[in-house]
């Protein structure tokens, strides 16, 4: 959110996501990670700032994401459910 708060039209931010929290894909206002109030006497500057926020949304640039480390261990039979009850083995 830091970059948004530096825009000339920025007025107020109401984040619902916290630092270190999980942010999921947004599909509507109920699932959004926050809202931002923008105001400016200069309509063109306000429009430019809103377009910039929309650009950040498109490139997924509103947040800095941390990814969980993936296990690079060698796959085992358990990884694929081989030998578990209810699975079937193909014969050649």
What does this molecule look like?
It is built from three helices and two strands. The protein is elongated, with a radius of gyration of 22 Å. The protein has helices at residues 2-5, 43-58, 77-80, and strands at 10-15, 34-38. It is α+β, with helices and mostly antiparallel strands.
Brief characterization of the structure:
With 92 residues, this protein is an alpha+beta fold. The protein is built from three helices and two strands, in the order αββαα.
Characteristic key phrases:
92 residues, alpha+beta, two-stranded antiparallel sheet, 12% strand, elongated
Described by strand count, sense and barrel closure, the largest sheet is:
2 strands, antiparallel
What class would the helix/strand composition place it in? alpha+beta
β-strand percent reads 5-15%
Helix content: 25-40%
Average pLDDT number: 80
Number of helices: 3
Rg from Cα: 22 Å
Spatial strand sequence of the major β-sheet: 1-2
Distance between the termini: 57 Å
Strand/helix succession: HEEHH
Number of strands: 2
Shape descriptor: elongated
Oligomeric state of shown chains: single chain
Residue ranges: pLDDT <50 for 5 or more in a row?
Answer: none
């Amino acid at each position: 959110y830091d970059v948004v708060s530096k825009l000339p039209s920025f007025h107020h931010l109401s984040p619902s996501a916290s630092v270190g929290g999980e942010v999921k894909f947004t599909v509507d206002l109920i699932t959004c990670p926050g809202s931002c109030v923008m105001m400016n006497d200069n309509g063109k500057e306000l429009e430019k700032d809103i377009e910039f926020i929309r650009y950040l949304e498109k490139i997924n640039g509103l947040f800095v994401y941390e990814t969980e480390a993936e296990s690079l261990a060698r796959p085992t039979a358990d990884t694929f459910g081989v030998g578990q009850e209810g699975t079937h083995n193909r014969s050649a």
